[in-house]
């Protein structure tokens, strides 16, 4: 599948075609730059505007109109030859032969064996990383049973594949995102037995103070409340699922009240975890955000701490699609200004104000829907924490008590959590939290980093590695090994 | 594995594809992933884990967790949530570690 023609050079490569990346790529192309837009998905829109081949997001909907416009502008810029859109391409490695200066090489492959790739490499003078998130998960006894899914995954099946993942569902965890998942299932004919929100109800009322500054958001909350009522979905607050029941597939859940609900689908979500492997790979600084997730540090121009690398959307902190769009637009203006193209300073000011309000609202949400303190108390000796390597809580405890593993890096080496196929994407947050709690301290960014850095951002074939090692003028192979060697991606 | 699942929303005129899973017929709609088609057919697992032999199917639904590995037309280790269903595809369950034919880099052991 590999092609060894000279990789083309772009002014900017945008990774991710969700709300942030689409806005950044379209904005940069319209400003006059040569843009590559690389996205693992087959269709533009990312997680928020996920759709299938025949059902684009509804244009009657406020956000649907925004998406329709962005998509039209994307295709217009493609026709003009300013924007090269590469859907179905994963960036698995980024290297920059000369530290902090000169172009980047991005290596690309397809998400599955038979996916044709148009390019296996592109080069770019600047990067905008808009890699989005996935659902954050906390291990619960029984969460590895078939029929238990990430809440966002259930939503993705509905929106992207027209498929309801079960017929009797419980939606559990924390956060406002549980509501669209529950109402989406109900609209698809699934009986939703309950939304189990782990945090207290007055959260809703408290965060309206912040929401008043972002009126569209409060309207959205009211719309979901109405839908929940129409479908008679009980919204239980301070309700945590303590155990998922079943032998070889899910049969139900037990709540902390002791009550059992029989279900064939359990959707779990505890907020979101940004995908930080590419920012870490290029050496960008990261920090722990208010929701406890590791995020890329950016300034008020969306610049990371690495020259010519920008980040936008949930890569810089979980905060929803509207904020992601504003950040993507601002990133485009910053790249344009760096190329000495004319930029309207009022536009940048307006975007900064939108971003400030969006972040304040996100902060209110994070305060209202925290990961519940003490969640690790529910883990049992046999609860699987790392699904890939099947590492249990008991094994983590023994690695701490008998082998002295006090930080996630040592934990990884001694007990192997985060060392399997997903590379800690699913269990990373939990392993950091468990390790810290076993050591009697709160989790820090230091705990999260080794579980968020990956030698490669996507699965690579041995052939691709071999080709990289010998076919290149650039020292890509060394960079890859170094970032894998100590696991924290600092080149 | 008997629970019937619904496909929400019918597509007027969209012809459905015919696939097989371990020899049994499964239908899929254009645009559905093979994982979605299996779920819609009430099949919730198609892999067993390496250590404990536990069943696995879709979990993250978006290509992140690798729980859903499946063999598609003889190619092992494909993510069922990403591979679009096509007419005539042969799907088969994956046992043990689900590991394919010499893929590297997924194991994190570059150290
Ligand atoms: C499964 C899921 C479902 C969601 N559904 C909803 C919903 O219905 N409603 C809602 O309000 N919010 C939803 N969210 C939250 C939503 O993700 C955000 O609000 C919004 O999409 C953020 O936009 P973004 O541009 O930052 O990232 P995203 O929309 O996540 O886009 C990031 C894109 O980058 C791509 N990418 C990442 N890494 C690479 C790489 N290495 N190479 C190539 N491409 C890469 C991804 O494939 C993705 O297309 C969902 C989140 C998830 C995880
Ligand atoms: S369900 Fe997670 S990778 Fe397919």
Automatic annotation (TrEMBL), chain B:
Region (Disordered): 89-111
The keyword Transmembrane helix is assigned to this record: yes
Transmembrane residue ranges: 24-46
Keyword annotations: Membrane, Transmembrane, Transmembrane helix
Acidic residues composition-biased segments: 96-111
Protein name per UniProt: (2Fe-2S)-binding protein
